[in-house]
From TrEMBL:
The lineage of its organism: Bacteria, Pseudomonadati, Pseudomonadota, Alphaproteobacteria, Rhodobacterales. The chain crosses the membrane at residues 20-40, 52-71. This is Uncharacterized protein. Keywords: Membrane, Transmembrane, Transmembrane helix. Residues 122-141 are annotated as: Disordered. The keyword Membrane applies.
Length: 306
């Protein structure tokens, strides 16, 4: 754990402690108010059991509301801390990635103005060759934690990325996730063959509530704020491939369907913040790029020459 992460965790703990202190102080103030009221008007105390019960409820309900508010605020603080940890883990994965040597060569070549029709002839990047050589089992596994899911969808950075490999093995134990991951690998590989690299696509933090709405079926302009990719070159290439190449289009649509199902599935068990963090993984970046191209996140992208 870095010094920055330690400071962040200490700050989060102090924030939760302050919420607890506020709850205690508010409760004490309320009890003092009740005591003053009783002391100033002792003759106004109820004389029968019903009156006493009503008075007791009137005194306890504000206390219950105070502590419900404290509990809600602490839960929100915990969720935010978990989201920060997820983002920190994802950034650490990216920072530790060593760029494949073979990836540098196509970057130096000018991008073709047209996209070949048969994308099956595009050579796969070295990163995917490394992944194929990994011994990945397909045993059945329980539901992945948010951190495990993010690491799996971000793909291992090589044979030494043991934690990501472990998470990928867990994900491949789920038939639905296995289909998604293989489709994501195909899409990322084919895009990389045309010079579109997921690590180069800038994905800023997005509104988790919008991702929840998207997972529930909202499309188009209502979630257009999720269309955050501003790389026109990447958008042009993806749009050309979707339009001109039937093989890529079939693979991309298969990937979009499975990622959409994953969001709907995780929205039922996870906080919306998790959905937003998933979109920052390599698979998530590919999803945003293609969804933005197809118009799932607003109007369909229009090629510059159109």
């Amino acid at each position: 754990m870095t010094a920055l992460e330690t400071l962040r965790r200490v700050a989060a703990d102090q924030s939760r402690d302050r919420l607890l202190s506020i709850g205690i102080a508010a409760s004490a103030v309320w009890l003092v108010v009740v005591g003053i009221f009783v002391w100033l008007d002792p003759d106004g105390l109820p004389q029968d059991m019903t009156g006493w019960l009503v008075g007791l409820v009137g005194a306890l309900v504000p206390l219950a509301l105070i502590w419900f508010g404290v509990w809600s605020a602490r839960s929100l603080a915990l969720l935010r801390a978990e989201a920060d940890d997820l983002r920190a883990s994802l950034h650490a994965i990216r920072a530790s990635a060593a760029p494949p040597v073979t990836d540098q060569e196509p970057r130096l070549k000018p991008r073709s103005a047209s996209v070949p029709r048969h994308v099956a002839t595009i050579p796969a990047p070295q990163a995917d060759n490394r992944q194929d050589s990994l011994d990945l089992g397909t045993q059945r596994s329980p539901e992945l934690t948010p951190t495990e899911l993010v690491r799996a969808l971000n793909f291992p950075d090589g044979p030494d990325d043991h934690e990501a490999i472990r998470c990928l093995k867990l994900a491949l134990g789920d038939p639905e996730l296995a289909r998604l991951i293989r489709a994501a690998q195909d899409v990322v590989t084919l895009l990389a063959g045309q010079g579109v690299y997921m690590d180069d696509l800038g994905i800023p933090e997005t509104d988790p509530e919008l991702w929840r709405q998207f997972a529930e079926g909202q499309r188009g302009e209502s979630v257009s704020a999720l269309a955050v990719i501003e790389d026109d070159s990447a958008l042009d290439i993806a749009a050309q491939m979707m339009r001109m190449d039937e093989v890529f289009r079939d693979v991309a649509q298969h990937f979009l369907r499975h990622f959409d199902r994953l969001l709907a599935r995780r929205a039922e068990i996870d906080d919306p913040v998790v959905l937003a963090v998933l979109a920052e993984s390599r698979s998530g970046r590919a999803f945003v790029l293609l969804a933005q191209t197809c118009g799932m996140l607003g109007r369909p992208y229009t090629l510059a020459k159109d």
